[in-house]
Specification:
three-stranded antiparallel beta sheet; 22% strand; rod-shaped; 8 strands; 292 residues; alpha+beta; Slipin family protein
Amino acid sequence: MIAWVVAGVIVAVLAVSAASALKVVNQYEKGVVFRLGRVSSVREPGLRVIIPVVERMRKVLLRVVTMPIQSQGIITRDNVSVDISAVAYFRVVDPVKSIVAIENVTAAIDQIAQTTLRKVVGQHTLDEALSDTDTINANIASILDTTTLEWGVEVTIVELKDIQLPESMQRAMARQAEAEREKRAKIIAAEGESLAASALGDASDMMMAHPLALQLRNLQTLAELGVEKNTTVVFPAPIMTAISELSTFLNREQAAAVHAVPPDPAGPGGVLNTNGFPNGQAHNGTSALPNT
């Protein structure tokens, strides 16, 4: 009976030892084996056997890890306070370093990512932080990658996720955007007026070269007015031409009136005598007054 109990204990110990000796490493993992506290080997994915009690295996994930960077209160280079959050993507490239070189690689990357985010964004103005995010992302990723490579980790991507602005700054930016849109609208309207004036100038030059074109345009205008069934007839005429023709007519009439008046035989202010000549003159032009 005692023999059976001893045999059962031995079998149980062997089963437990066998279970602890067999390790399964997934495809997205690698196993780092420690033998009596020292790194002995790195095991690839699959079923792996270790020596119980003497050896110990720690599995390391090789997949890309998504780590959100919590919102940070940052003062930009132009002294504007903003809250910026980001997200970082990293993966382990050296399983041994990720275990031996640092205690908790995820927590370490989280902390250094926050400080790097404040440092890099603080070197840029607000406009650059809003418009040139690709450069800021690349700078943050480069700094993080340089630091984390010593830990066996590669930072692949860093992206700014959210930028919170003060309400006063949002209102100021809205007014600025509205003024910019009004400026563009006025510029576009001015360009349209310039093009229209240029086209009208070309049209006027064409009509001056071809007077009948102006008459045809006047007839077209009359036809358009007639479509509306108006009782008032409007006849368009060139103002300057009409004024010039009217001035010519008045001058001509005035000149004709001047030529039609006969000359006064007595001269200006003169009186005729009994002989039909002005007083003081004879028929031969000599004076008719007696000499004294």
